[in-house]
Q: What sequence folds into this?
């Protein structure tokens, strides 16, 4: 089974329209998925057939996938995207699953709305970058604006997967490349700019149970970086490391990702 979408469409937030999809079991625990750079709702597609006992909500950030491109973005505006989805659909007591930059967004959302976000599963969450990282993001952003997504796509995809996955998971690599190359260049560049200018969340305001999932071959968000995030959050956070996995955890370690999400959902009070 692929998906059994029960509702989908566009939700307005100020001047943008956010595309969403919803499926699964109504009245059960809601899982809100937040993709990362170059992702869409389909970044989580390998998971959904095994999570149909939950209420599954996916959406594309402003500027990504099928959502419209805004004039500007920031970490705060992406949190506002989440708030628009939550408010429009009336979501409560949710588990948030975020990937990469979506993990950072998840932490900001959890710190701001501890009454709504009861759990977070963060796959390879990133931190606000230091100066060197900001310069690298600015260079990529400028390249995308001047030359298009194709100028960076293959290097980004190759660096994101583990060597083993590049050989053994060619279909998953192709999916990641397809999502990335289909992005609006300006929407992708705006996301890079937003990460470059982002701030850290109020770590101690995160009351949700947090699970940080790290790939042992992840060059973007290393095991050390994940451990530091767990330390910043405190006793309600823990880390799990996936073997032979790079930065596309859901595509590289699908079964382990599903088990981790189910376990996290069950651990919510």
A:
């Amino acid at each position: 089974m692929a998906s059994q979408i029960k509702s989908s469409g566009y939700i307005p937030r100020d001047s943008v329209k956010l595309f969403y999809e919803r499926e699964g079991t109504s009245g059960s625990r809601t899982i809100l998925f937040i993709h990362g750079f170059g992702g869409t709702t389909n970044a989580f597609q390998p998971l959904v057939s095994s999570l149909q006992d939950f209420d599954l909500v996916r959406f594309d950030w402003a500027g990504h996938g099928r959502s419209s491109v805004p004039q500007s973005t920031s970490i705060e505006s992406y949190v506002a995207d989440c708030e628009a989805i939550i408010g429009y659909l009336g979501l409560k007591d949710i588990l948030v699953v975020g990937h990469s930059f979506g993990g950072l967004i998840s932490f900001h959302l959890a710190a701001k709305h501890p009454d709504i976000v009861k759990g977070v599963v963060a796959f390879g969450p990133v931190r606000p970058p230091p100066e060197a990282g900001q310069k690298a993001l600015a260079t990529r952003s400028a390249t995308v604006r001047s030359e298009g997504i194709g100028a960076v796509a293959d290097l980004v995809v190759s660096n994101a997967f583990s060597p083993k996955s590049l050989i053994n998971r060619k279909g998953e690599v192709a999916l990641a490349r397809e999502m990335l190359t289909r992005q609006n260049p300006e929407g992708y560049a705006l996301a890079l700019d937003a990460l470059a200018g982002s701030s850290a969340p109020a770590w101690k305001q995160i009351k949700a149970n947090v699970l940080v999932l790290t790939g042992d071959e992840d060059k973007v968000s290393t095991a050390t970086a994940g451990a530091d995030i767990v330390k910043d959050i405190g006793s309600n956070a823990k880390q799990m490391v996936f073997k032979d996995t790079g930065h596309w955890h859901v595509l590289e370690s699908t079964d382990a990702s599903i088990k981790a999400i189910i376990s996290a959902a069950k651990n919510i009070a």
